[in-house]
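Hi R.,

Here's the chain you asked about this morning:
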Amino acid sequence: MIVALVWAGSPQRAFAEGPAQAAPLPPPPPAAPPPPPSLPAPAATAVTSPQAGPATSPVPAPSPEEMRHRRVPVDIDATRPGAVVERRVSVTESDGAYFFVPFRSSSSIWEQVCVTPCQVDLDRFSTYRVSARNGISPSRSFTLPQSADSLQLKIDAGHLLMHRAGAAMSAVGLAAVVVGTALIAGQSVFTDETKARDAGFITGGAGLVVMAIGIPLAVLTATGVSPAGGSRIAFTPRGFTF
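And the predicted structure, written out as tokens:
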């Protein structure tokens, strides 16, 4: 037993039973050749395309003589101070259909020119009006005479409150006339035809009376504009002016 242990622990046995030598590794593959040096990229060449110039306007620009001709000195006076004169800057028109009913609408932008009494150079090709301010009723739009080198305008200022009252009375009277006419025309659908007919006559008659007051009141209190010493007829609060 002792001999066996001694033999097992001897160096020759240990060498015989030691791990086997590892197999030699294969040689490494040859290294890849280095890549060729990259050449610098050619600089991008800017290509400029010709730009189209602005389209030529079919209407030539006005000359200095034409610009001077457009301006006309105007002396504006009114029967009541504080009338505001405005110039129309632009107008927008649109049309279409609503439930197959065609319609057309327009809207305008106005700028203030002066407050009477005033002296100002105006564009003879523009449209003007007197606005509803300072207790003065509005006027219809008007243009300037084209043949005058200087001009004097006279504004017959109307009363704004009375003008609006006349317009309201005219609208109410018209509505009453329509209702009265409908009652008279449809009296057969009522139980008492006599009362329906009488109500129609009363309503329509009252509407005619209100309209007879409101229409002249609205017309007489409207503002009118005419050249001083001109020949145009205008219906003003003072009657017809020539």
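The longest strand covers residues 84-98.

Let me know if you need anything else.
M.
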